[in-house]
Amino acid sequence: MAVIGEFIRKAIDVYGFITSEPDPAKAQRTVLQNLLEKARLTAFGKKYNFSEILQSDDVIGAFQREVPVHDYDKLYDDWWHYLLEGHQNVTWPGGQHYFALSSGTTSNSKSIPVTDDMLDAIRKSGMQQVMSLKNFDLPADFFEKQIMMLGSSVSLIEKDDHQEGEISGISAANIPAWFRAFYKPGAEIASITDWDEKVRRIAEEAPTWDIGSLSGIPSWVEMMLKEVISHNRLNTIHDIWPNLQVYTTGGVAFEPYRKSFEKLLAKPLIYIDTYLTSEGYLATQKRPDTTSLALILDNGIFFEFVPFSNENMDEDGRVKPDAKVLTLEQAQENTDYVLLISTVSGTWRYMIGDTVMITDKQRSEIKITGRTKHFLNVVGEQLSVFQMNQAMQNLQSQYDLEIKEFVVAAVRKDGEYINKWFVGSNRTVDNQAFAVSLDQELCEANKNYKVARSKSLKGVEAEVIPVEQFYRWSEDYKKLGGQTKIPRVMKEEDFLDFEQYIRSLS
């Protein structure tokens, strides 16, 4: 079998040698040209004159002038609801066999079309990730090991003319035949919708598997590993999966989970970050000496960048109609941008809800810095989730804590605004001292926050609670497992409901 592993590794090396990274500007122009050409006879393409745009000397400029920026609500209200009613050729040729369901953080719930072209693009992006493994110096036998993909159920919801589920479940239900021999937990267990039952079955079957790689959202992967260790009376996960070498993460920042995650291991793992959303596979980490993600530029997604500033954003976190919008070629490093995408699923100039920063323009590498609605700016704080995560990492060291989840809101107290935090950890601390330390960290990290603290933001309160209470809330009010993410920033009303729930657990 080692011969097979060596063959696969050499094939990856050869493929990587003969396929070079595309020129970013040229690749993106080609992608947009192909998107417009294929969709020009759809209802959307006719409405916004795609045929005329294609005749322009400046296709990108004409596209940006003609087609407005959309968020989910606008695309759904104007176009996508027709797809769910059975219409075809609306924003992409043909109809949709799948819709990705998402609880969303920029909207209460989403039903996002997943076309056959998008599934093909996701598979191709997955192959780009596999090809990049040549950069991580993995041994030949790694390529013979099984891959644990912990996602949502592959048992999709059947509708009259389509199926619905989370994107991880849809992707897993459409994995190539050759990959099924490597894929765990396998179709039977992956189809289980009850999280506790799924994890119990994984724990029971774990001794029969030889897992080399894990993938999934950190919080749910960690919970699964703990159950496997507990059920099989192990010290670490390497007692049962000694060949585990790689963890492919995504969905949320991994750093808040690193400390507790690594307690479950007997030896270090290679961590590879990815950017797979309900709307498509946008980026992947391609080299070991960075945590940045390389945008996938030549595979059905056209990227645009809106400088994340008050001039470009309205009070609801949406891009203003007259906002300045840049291409990748025009965007600069070390600036926060709202990301727009146009894709082979018929999303057009779509505000995905994430903010990103270009860290290496030559390599088209980015970091995800937050969410447009996970940006706290009620009284001028201008705090990004990236800054919040950094503060929590520093407080983990200062207080010897494991901080896995947190949520914050600007709430009124005695007629004035304060920032109130709930922090999920493995043990409690002095809440008042913790709040003071958190306030200091944020003042040092963000000058706007420091100014707000001297004027309109009158206080900071923090309460450290057992992290299990976050997961209980998620199970009761959202959904446990799969691709579900706990929000970092809430509106005041939602936060007060969350606080009431936490109080009910005492």
UniProtKB/TrEMBL annotation:
Pfam families: GH3, GH3_C, GH3_M. Residues 295-361 form the GH3 middle domain. InterPro entries: GH3, GH3_C, GH3_M. Residues 387-493 form the GH3 C-terminal domain. One of its GO terms (cellular component) is cytoplasm. One of its GO terms (molecular function) is acid-amino acid ligase activity. Coiled coil: none annotated. Signal peptide: none annotated. It comes from the Bacteria. This is GH3 auxin-responsive promoter. It comes from Larkinella punicea.
